[in-house]
């Protein structure tokens, strides 16, 4: 519980939090540097030039910059192939394109780690009216509980399983993100029983938080959003899919159309540069986001709130969860973050029925790129227990300003 003297103690909390970030940085810095090294090597290997940024119009046949960026993503993520496309409008769309591209009627999708991210439920057909969902197309679905051991889960994979989905990040759930090591153990357990199935990892929020990505740990295909980690805060739109060559081709037929696949899809000139530059900077911006998350975790745990991950926990995603005591605190936090953002600081966020989510959601995103969660943003479904999810922050210094204000608002309102 927050004590009356907390306002006076704030300076001490801030100082402790900064020290916690510095200590944590000792562990993370080598990871960050290693990802930077991979990135610069890929840019050099594929000889990126100014021409890559010129873009294309119409069908976008032979868009040199687009095709080279596919190679760069593939190289950095240790994939055989990759698709980076502005026609992928969000993370959910990117994941849906993969699932529809790879699964056929009467085959089965298995979620290996319990219920997937909220927006995926309607894609699968578990919520909503099922129109256009995987279920409506005759694709079957099984969910395996995280409470079962890996071996038990692997043994329970139904015979008609074609694709196993692992979600790396927590999403709106109170669990740690899976580390690359844990994903490797999952892949090994699955392969041992079922070498034939495709393993797909929803990599949203996970990119560059560790030294390698899930493909290196044994996954076949990964996907994510460019307005999260790999866009580096600069990508204005887009998604990526990386993995085995044959799978990428199947997915490309769903992305555009059979036969045409990856050959079309114009990218405007200015966008191409932002995709390159954003990806190039992403290892750094993820580092800033992680610092912001550790800082927040430290302050709120000092204040006696439950936080996940804790300040000493390994992080495999940029999301920081804080469990508040009341709905009002969620709203106070989000409104304070919005108020201390560069864009739309005068706008007051309120809970709303966002498409794809079952509960009303409140979101603070005073961002340059609309709704970008690589920039400092906070969101919470309005449901008990009142858990807030904070992520992003392209600059630790800016994040600190906003977080300090949010902390102050919450404490002030509590003491009223
Ligand atoms: C954000 C996210 C998604 C969906 O991405 P959107 O861009 O919001 O559609 C899916 N899975 C996970 C784990 C995510 O974090």
Structure description:
α9 crosses α10. 41% of the residues lie in helices and 14% in strands. The model has no long low-confidence stretch (mean pLDDT 95). A seven-stranded mixed β-sheet has the order 1-7-6-5-4-2-3, sandwiched between helices. Strands 8-9-12-11-10 form a five-stranded antiparallel β-sheet, covered by helices on one side. The protein is α/β, with parallel strands linked by helices and 416 residues long. The chain is globular and about 65 Å long. It is built from ten helices and twelve strands. The protein binds pyridoxal-5'-phosphate (PLP).
Briefly say what this structure is.
This protein has 416 residues and is α/β, with parallel strands linked by helices. Helices cover 41% and strands 14% of the residues.
Write the layout of secondary structure elements.
Layout: H1 6-45, H2 64-76, E1 81-85, H3 91-102, E2 108-111, H4 118-124, E3 140-143, H5 150-155, E4 161-167, H6 180-193, E5 198-202, E6 221-225, E7 239-243, H7 245-255, H8 269-302, E8 306-308, E9 320-324, H9 327-339, E10 361-364, E11 377-381, E12 386-391, H10 396-414
Parallel strand pairs: 2-3, 2-4, 4-5, 5-6
Antiparallel strand pairs: 1-7, 6-7, 8-9, 9-12, 10-11, 11-12
Bound molecules: pyridoxal-5'-phosphate (PLP).
The site of pyridoxal-5'-phosphate has 13 residues, from helix 3.
């Amino acid at each position: 519980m927050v004590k009356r003297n907390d306002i006076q103690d704030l300076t001490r909390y801030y100082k402790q939090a900064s020290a916690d970030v510095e200590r944590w940085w000792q562990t993370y810095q080598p990871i960050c540097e290693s990802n930077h090294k991979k990135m610069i090597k890929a840019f050099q290997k594929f000889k990126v030039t100014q021409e890559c940024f010129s873009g294309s119009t119409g069908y976008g046949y032979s868009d040199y910059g687009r095709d080279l960026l596919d190679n760069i993503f593939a190289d950095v993520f240790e994939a055989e192939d990759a698709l980076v496309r502005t026609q992928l409008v969000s993370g959910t769309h990117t994941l849906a394109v993969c699932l529809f591209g790879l699964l056929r009627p009467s085959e089965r999708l298995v979620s290996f780690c319990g219920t997937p991210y909220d927006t995926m439920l309607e894609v699968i057909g578990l919520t909503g009216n099922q129109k256009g969902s995987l279920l409506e197309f005759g694709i079957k679905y099984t969910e395996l509980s995280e409470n079962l051991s890996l071996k038990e889960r692997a043994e329970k994979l139904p015979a008609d399983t074609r694709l196993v989905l692992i979600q790396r990040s927590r999403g709106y759930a109170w669990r740690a993100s899976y580390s690359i090591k844990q994903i490797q153990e999952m892949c090994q357990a699955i392969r041992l029983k079922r070498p034939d199935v495709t393993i797909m990892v929803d990599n949203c929020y996970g990119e560059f938080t560790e030294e390698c990505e899930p493909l290196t740990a044994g996954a076949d295909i990964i996907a994510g959003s460019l307005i999260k980690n790999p866009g580096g805060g600069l990508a204005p739109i887009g998604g990526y899919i990386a993995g085995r060559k044959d799978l990428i081709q199947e997915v490309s037929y769903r992305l555009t159309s059979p036969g045409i696949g990856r050959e079309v899809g114009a990218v405007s000139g200015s966008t191409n540069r932002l995709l390159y530059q954003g990806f190039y900077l992403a290892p750094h911006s993820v580092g800033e986001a992680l610092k912001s998350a550790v800082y927040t975790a430290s302050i709120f745990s000092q204040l006696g709130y439950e936080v996940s991950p804790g300040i000493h926990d390994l992080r495999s995603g940029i999301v920081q969860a804080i469990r508040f005591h009341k709905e009002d605190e969620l709203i106070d936090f989000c409104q304070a973050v919005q108020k201390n953002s560069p864009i739309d600081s005068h706008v007051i966020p309120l809970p709303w029925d966002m498409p794809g989510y079952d509960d009303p959601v409140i979101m603070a995103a005073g961002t340059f790129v609309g709704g970008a969660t690589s920039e400092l943003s906070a969101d919470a479904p309005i449901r008990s227990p009142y858990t807030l999810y904070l992520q992003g922050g392209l600059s630790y210094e800016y994040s600190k300003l906003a977080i300090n204000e949010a902390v102050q608002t919450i404490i002030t309102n509590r003491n009223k």
